[in-house]
Amino acid sequence: MDNVTTSTITEVKTSKSRYSACLLFSANALSRAITAIGDEEFGRFGLCYSHAYMLCEVVEQPGITPSELSGTLCLTPSTITRLVEKLEQKRLVRRESEGKKTLIYPTAEGEAIQPEIAQAWDRVGARYSQVLGETSVCQLTKQVFSAAKALGGGI
Amino acid sequence: MDNVTTSTITEVKTSKSRYSACLLFSANALSRAITAIGDEEFGRFGLCYSHAYMLCEVVEQPGITPSELSGTLCLTPSTITRLVEKLEQKRLVRRESEGKKTLIYPTAEGEAIQPEIAQAWDRVGARYSQVLGETSVCQLTKQVFSAAKALGGGI
DNA sequence: AATTTTTGTTTGCACATACAAATATCATTC
DNA sequence: GAATGATATTTGTATGTGCAAACAAAAATT
């Protein structure tokens, strides 16, 4: 029960499958690394990156619905509900029921901190670029974006 | 349902801050999309992708330690402990204490299902390639990998 | 007009993951 | 050789996320 297994494994290591393993692993590692930077910058507002992103969308489109946000942020409706709850709890947005829909509006405070959040985005971008180089960031973003869109299909 | 969702990202936007937002968002979206495919394939074994990846490493290097796995999988030691617990619970690996170290070995069953798992990796890879194209997968993997390494620095 | 189907949102539960603190062992220094 | 510091691992706690089910409201079908 030794040699057979061993040779199989060695084959596996050099075959295509390692690439797939690597993409899965790398994509998650990249996600964690980038999220860490984002959360570090947005932590000052007591937000994580997805809260910040969501708040920007709400400020940009007052009255946006959870399902629209779900499409924009590529997160499931249930996750959106949870994020909105957090933001509501921090008095940055408020909800209004209208029929079966829910409309989400920024509060005055939510609009007020939006410029600061935009600055935080810039700092995040600067940190990426510092490490990866500005051109790489653009290239990487495009590739990752199109791959995500192709694979995820949008929720 | 109308075109209220103007800011839905169908295209990488041009302002700098949008790029950073986009990279953060895209990286996470890619991660989720890819993880979904991985988990779907490994779900037959009752595993998620990281369990499967870890099992491969353990089979390949019997007696590997949590900290080594932490480096390989780019996950924190505490996460490794939790994953090992799950794998141990499924009787696929076992732990041995040796001083302050913990050595992780595959069980017979763990070794037995390894070839099936390798096949699952191949199926995952096939699904990526089908959507993205084989050359794109390799290119994307390399880029994402080096970016993750540069940003994360390895844990 | 009443019932069924579809659509939008929210809850219950589960999981992977991380951080911080606790624990256990090894290595160094006095 | 005892005390201090360094390293390895595990627990407590918290969080973002998703799936499936529940719920609510609108639309469609009868």
UniProtKB/TrEMBL annotation, chains A, B:
HTH marR-type domain boundaries: 20-146
Pfam annotation, one family: MarR
GO terms, biological process: response to stress
Domain of life: Bacteria
SUPFAM superfamilies: Winged helix' DNA-binding domain
GO molecular function: DNA-binding transcription factor activity
Protein name listed in UniProt: MarR family transcriptional regulator
Source lineage: Bacteria, Pseudomonadati, Bacteroidota, Cytophagia, Cytophagales
